[in-house]
Design a protein that fits this description.
about 250 residues; alpha/beta; Rossmann fold; 4-stranded parallel β-sheet; 3-stranded parallel β-sheet; 9 strands; oxidoreductase activity; SDR_fam; Putative dehydrogenase; oxidoreductase; NAD(P)-bd_dom_sf
């Protein structure tokens, strides 16, 4: 199962897993795009792709996905919690309602869906969850970075708790990837150095390799691994200045 499957990293996961012969459950808000994606994956790879329309910023949407994950007659072997978004603007420039909506998708939905999946996986003695976080989890980056830091901490802790049960969990921390995500968040491509952009398909390939190796944390690119290491050594104030401005418009006065 892949949430946020119709674009970006989610679409790359869907294509790769379908190419490997896995049947899929595709989850997103746009049913038309979901059905088009399902038909395309079936035609190209011969796999069955189930469609589940759900808005993970709403309780009913989360509950619908929880119910599917709890279906023991049609178990999900791998959950990719990929759905997410970024708000346009800095803290206090974004309405509180929008911040809370993001927290619901990034934190509450991830917790609830991981729990629903892990319970059935533990009963079977196998299965896995990949929670898509962000490199922003390691840098001061407002509410978005804070929510992704929660995803990393939660996933790593749960991975240890479930290791003996045969259930693997991994937090995936990509950097800037050329997808719809950044356009929706108001990030202009020319505001980010060209070397920082990653390819979604290569990212997914690296992530799945890390998952197969049993890693609980994946930063699937040498450039971002180096950045994370340097950030631990550099003065926190300097890291905060850089991370707060890359890919963002100038501050409002």
């Amino acid at each position: 199962m892949i949430t946020g499957s119709t674009a970006g990293i989610g679409a790359a996961f869907a294509s790769r897993l379908a190419a490997d012969g896995h049947n899929l459950v595709l989850v997103a808000r746009d049913e038309k795009r979901l059905r088009e994606q399902a038909a395309d994956l079936h035609d190209r790879h011969g796999v069955e792709a189930e469609v589940l329309r759900a808005d993970l910023s709403e309780d009913d949407g989360i509950a619908a996905v929880e119910a599917r994950l709890s279906d023991r007659k049609h178990p999900v072997d791998l959950l990719v919690n990929n759905a997410g978004f970024g708000n346009k603007g800095r803290y206090l420039e974004v309405p509180l309602a929008d911040e809370l909506r993001m927290m619901k998708v990034h934190c509450e939905a991830v917790l609830r869906l991981t729990t629903a999946a892990a319970e059935t996986m533990r009963a079977r003695g196998r299965g896995g969850v990949i929670n898509v976080a962000s490199i922003a989890a390691f840098f001061p980056r407002g509410t978005y970075g804070a929510s992704k830091a929660w995803v990393v901490q939660f996933t790593q802790g749960a991975a240890k708790d479930l290791a003996s049960a045969g259930v693997r969990l991994m937090a995936l921390c990509p950097g800037f990837v050329r997808t719809e995500f950044h356009a929706r968040a108001g990030i202009k491509p020319d505001s980010v150095p060209s070397w920082m952009w990653l390819d979604a398909d290569k990212l997914v390939t690296a992530a799945l390799k890390d998952f197969a190796r049993g890693k609980a944390l994946s930063i699937p690119d040498p450039r971002y691994k180096a950045m994370t290491g340097l950030a631990k050594l550099a003065p926190r104030a300097a890291v905060s200045v850089v991370s707060s401005n890359v890919g963002r418009p100038p501050r409002k006065r």
